[in-house]
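Bit of a strange request maybe. I'm writing a small parser for structure token strings and I need a real example to test against, not something I typed by hand. Could someone generate the tokens for this chain?
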Amino acid sequence: MAPKKYPRAHALLEKFYAGKCTPEELAILDSWYDGLDNIADISAVDTAHYQQQFLANFRNSLPEAKIVRWKQTAIKWTAAAASVILLAGAGYWWLHTAQQKTMHPGDIKSFLVTNETSNAKLVVLPDSSHIWLNAAASLRWKEDFNQKVRSVQLTGEGFFDVQGQTGKPFIIRTRDLTIQVLGTKFNVEAYPAEGVTRVSLQQGKVKVGAGKDSTILKPGYAAVYNNEDKGLAVAAADASKMAVWRDGVFIATDLPLRDAVTRLCTRYGYNVHWENAQGADKIISVMFIKETFVKTLDNLCYISRKHYRIAEKQVTIY
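Reply from user aminoacidic:
Good idea to test on real output. This should exercise your parser:
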């Protein structure tokens, strides 16, 4: 099935970037883009691909002058889907991979792994559980991990494939939630700059707790905690999207535009400044398949009717 052809697209695009589109013309652009989400009998990934192709056609007509660069830096984009830590054994792990922190009470050491790349990073824990960290995410645990309780602390986004061990529950703590599992696969979004924490379950069963509230998740559902109203809600989630970011896909599900842009910029080491914050709290859901930073930012700015400029490591939205 091929995406539709869009007459007048080039002319409308020129008017859009010149700031001369009428409300009726903006509605036409929106309907073209949103209409791609209603194609029957295709997967969510295919829908995202068609939407992305639609934006790419617009982007090809975009004049180069619209992206302002005050200092050009040579950046090489790799085709690698993930950066992987391979462990030969437990002894190698303790000696070479984890960054040792200061001693805690009881002389128990703490270890920290932070993903400082724009790709996914795989961490294999001493119990053989696998955790993929998204860009800028970090995972912390103590030296006595796997003795009685397997406990870790997550900041940012991570996908967990936890090995089951009888009598040794696996516990993940974030800023707002405590997640307890035995053996399962699930995704956790716990970005420190965002007001929402989300746990999406792909396989198995997890218990999610926030203060006095808790819920048991089933596969295909997500628990969403809102830090502003301290509420914990459960909603259906698309299992096919839960871990696509590990393959270089940029995804933002039910996020304010401001948070989606911040996620993207943080992933590639950029700060964000908003000169025009109108509509920044609008909730969006997007998925862009293996695009570069600039192309993904183009897409986000198009669907939100915004422009941007880049000066060194700062992105300004206007």
